[in-house]
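Exercise 7. Given the encoded structure of a 392-residue chain, write a plausible sequence.
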């Protein structure tokens, strides 16, 4: 398993498939994946990886796939008890009842049960070519229809989705300025490391845009435990955060798992207060919102610590990663192996971004406690991991 941790920066890149010329909104901040990788800006990419932590405010709009309106409290309870994937847009709509073009479009698509591919085909049959990527950007609030062809597509969409005429058109905001836009630092930095449409972004929805905007990680310590079967049994993280502005009082973490068999079975927060724990089964990700217990002054620091036990994966773990979007003063990763599942080889590596080939690989020895560790000072943005192999 490998888990990624993200610190706090990403760069925004142009989204593909904008053949209609609509301009994208500023990109949203990233998260994690793989065997666990994570933390306030980390994300796990393994069986139990942490995808993204971010300071997320419950009042910030959600932008995920639409779900049936439910009251916020009931939604969290439902997610906790049933493992149903709960989107941030559903929570936001439940709390505010606000209607926006992206939210209404998502809701209509969900109600009609139409995929973006089917919608694109139906538009094409009417003589309007709009790509799936553009439709995705519209429903996620990253861009909006502005040109004549796009506005014509909106009128046809209302027919396809059985919406009263003018429903979508009336929700369009003012025309957006042309030219390249630079996303907020946290969002752009995360996109640079995670790429677009990552698991973290999908798990956070609109909250991804404000990802850990008010804080940054200074030091992160990950501990991963591998059980006798070679699968991850649990992990814990201690994260030292510093406020970039006054008033920061919470952080959001996304932990992702490699397969559906590896699910969180116990969550303990030892520093901070757990405000939300929602397991999104479809994304194999766990979203944690942890409150600091006080509002931080600018440049003030706080410590967040949590531990997660997971059910066994279907296959043994072979790596653990953490991604960081900002410079960490120090990052320590420890992996403890059960005596009955000792690896024959371990090495550390770095990736410039998620999915990039590993570089700076170096073998690391197994310690007397059946553990390996990597300590990195002045840890640069990127993906930092440990991989291991088992004998025949």
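Solution.
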């Amino acid at each position: 398993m490998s888990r990624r941790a993200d610190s706090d920066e990403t760069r925004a890149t142009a989204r593909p498939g904008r053949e209609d010329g609509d301009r994208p909104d500023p990109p949203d901040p990233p998260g994690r994946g793989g065997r666990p990788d994570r933390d306030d800006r980390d994300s796990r990419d393994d069986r139990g990886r942490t995808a993204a932590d971010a300071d997320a405010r419950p009042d910030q709009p959600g932008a995920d796939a639409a779900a049936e309106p439910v009251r916020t409290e009931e939604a969290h309870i439902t997610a906790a008890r049933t493992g149903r994937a709960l989107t941030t847009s559903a929570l936001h709509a439940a709390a505010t009842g606000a209607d926006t073009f992206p939210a209404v479009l998502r809701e209509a698509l969900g109600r009609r049960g139409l995929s973006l591919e089917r919608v694109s085909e139906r538009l094409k049959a009417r003589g309007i070519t709009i790509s799936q990527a553009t439709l995705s950007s519209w429903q996620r609030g990253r861009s909006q229809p502005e040109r004549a062809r796009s506005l014509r597509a909106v009128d046809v969409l209302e027919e396809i989705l059985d919406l009263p005429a003018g429903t979508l058109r009336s929700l369009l905001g003012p025309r957006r300025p042309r030219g390249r836009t630079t996303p907020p630092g946290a969002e752009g930095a995360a996109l640079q490391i995670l790429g677009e449409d990552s698991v973290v972004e999908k798990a956070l929805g609109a909250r991804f845009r404000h990802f850990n905007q008010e804080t940054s990680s200074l030091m992160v310590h990950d501990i991963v435990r591998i059980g006798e079967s070679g699968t991850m049994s649990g992990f814990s993280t201690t994260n030292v955060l510093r406020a970039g502005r006054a008033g920061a009082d919470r952080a959001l973490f996304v932990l992702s798992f490699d397969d559906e068999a590896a699910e969180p079975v116990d969550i303990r927060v030892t520093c901070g207060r757990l405000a939300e724990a929602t397991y999104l089964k479809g994304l194999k990700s766990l979203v944690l919102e942890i409150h600091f217990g006080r509002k931080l002054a600018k440049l003030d620091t706080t410590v967040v610590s949590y531990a997660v036990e997971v059910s066994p994966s279907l296959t043994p773990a072979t790596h653990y990663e953490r991604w960081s979007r900002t410079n960490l003063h120090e990052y320590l990763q420890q992996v403890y192996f059960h005596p009955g599942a000792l690896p024959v080889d371990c090495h550390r590596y770095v990736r410039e971004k998620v999915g990039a080939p590993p570089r700076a690989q170096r073998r690391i020895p197994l310690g007397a406690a059946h553990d390996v560790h990597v300590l990195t000072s002045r840890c640069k943005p990127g993906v930092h991991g440990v991989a291991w192999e088992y004998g025949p």
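Remark. Residues 366 and 372 are 5 Å apart (CA to CA). Students should compare their own answers with the one above.
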